[in-house]
Design goal:
Blueprint (H helix, E strand, L loop, with lengths): L13 H20 L5 H7 L4 H4 L6 H21 L6 H16 L3 H9 L3 H23 L13 H22 L3 H16 L3 H10 L1 H4 L12
Helix pairs in contact: 1-2, 1-4, 4-5, 4-7, 5-7, 5-9, 7-8, 8-9, 9-10
Length: about 220
C-alpha cells in the first residue's frame, strides 16, 4: 500500500510549529505586562533570538494581528454559546463568561478592542454583537420574563451594554480589581444599562442559581 501526498505541499517542521506557538504564547504574556513591548522582548520571552521570528511573522504587527484575531475568535465563540430563557439572566451570564475568558489578559483584551486592529476585532465580534442585540430584543417583547428596558432602540442598547462591560474591564485593569469583584461589577453594570436599579440587579444575581453558583472567574489566556 502506498501513501499519497500532495505535490508541493509540506507539513511544517515540528520545531518551526513549536517556535510559532511559543512566540504567540510569549506575546500574550509580555504584551499583557506592556502593550508596547518590542518584538525583541517577545522573542526573549519565547527563548528565541530575533531572527527566527521573521520566519513566522514579517513584523510585530503581523504577530499582533494573528494573536488578536485568534484570541477574539475564541472569546466570541464562548460568549455566543451562552444561553438562558430569561434575557436579563442571559445578559448577566454573558458578562460573567467574559471574565472567565479575559481576566488573565486584561491589557491585551483592551488593546484588542481599542487598539489599531479594531476592524479585525470587530469582524470577529459580530456574532457576539448579534447575540446581544437578539437578547435585548427578546427582553423587550410584550410579556417577556425579566424584561429589558424598551425606551432605547435595541441595537443602541446592545452597544451600550457592550460598552458598560468594557468600561468595567478598563477599571479592573487600572485598579487591579480581584476577578470575583470585577465579575460581579460587570454583571451589575450590564444589568443596570439594561434597565435594572442596583437593588433589583443585586437580587437577580443573588437569587439566580446560574449567576450565584457559577464558579468564580478562572483566569484563561486567549490561546491560539
Amino acid at each position: 500500500m502506498t501513501t499519497s501526498t500532495t505535490p508541493g505541499i509540506r507539513a511544517p517542521r515540528r520545531d518551526a510549529a513549536e517556535n510559532r506557538a511559543a512566540l504567540l504564547a510569549a506575546a500574550r504574556i509580555v504584551l499583557n505586562r506592556d502593550a508596547d513591548a518590542s518584538l525583541d522582548a517577545i522573542a526573549a520571552e519565547a527563548g528565541l533570538t530575533r531572527q527566527p521570528v521573521y520566519g513566522h511573522f514579517a513584523n510585530r504587527d503581523a504577530l499582533l494581528v494573528e494573536l488578536v484575531e485568534r484570541g477574539t475568535s475564541r472569546v466570541a465563540a464562548a460568549l455566543v454559546a451562552v444561553d438562558h430563557p430569561q434575557p436579563l439572566v442571559r445578559l448577566a451570564l454573558i458578562a460573567s463568561r467574559m471574565w472567565q475568558e479575559v481576566d488573565a489578559v486584561r491589557v491585551m483584551t483592551l488593546f484588542a478592542v481599542r487598539g489599531p486592529f479594531q476592524d479585525q476585532v470587530a469582524q470577529r465580534l459580530r456574532p457576539v454583537r448579534r447575540h446581544l442585540a437578539e437578547t435585548v430584543r427578546a427582553g423587550t417583547r410584550p410579556g417577556a420574563q425579566c424584561a429589558v428596558r424598551s425606551d432605547v432602540p435595541p441595537d443602541t442598547l446592545a452597544r451600550l451594554i457592550e460598552g458598560a462591560a468594557i468600561a468595567v474591564l478598563d477599571e479592573a485593569r487600572r485598579t487591579g480589581m480581584p476577578a470575583a469583584s470585577a465579575r460581579r461589577l460587570s454583571m451589575l453594570a450590564v444589568l443596570g444599562m439594561a434597565g435594572l436599579d442596583a437593588g433589583a440587579a443585586n437580587r437577580l444575581i443573588d437569587e439566580t442559581p446560574e449567576l450565584r453558583l457559577e464558579p468564580a472567574a478562572t483566569p484563561q489566556e486567549l490561546r491560539p
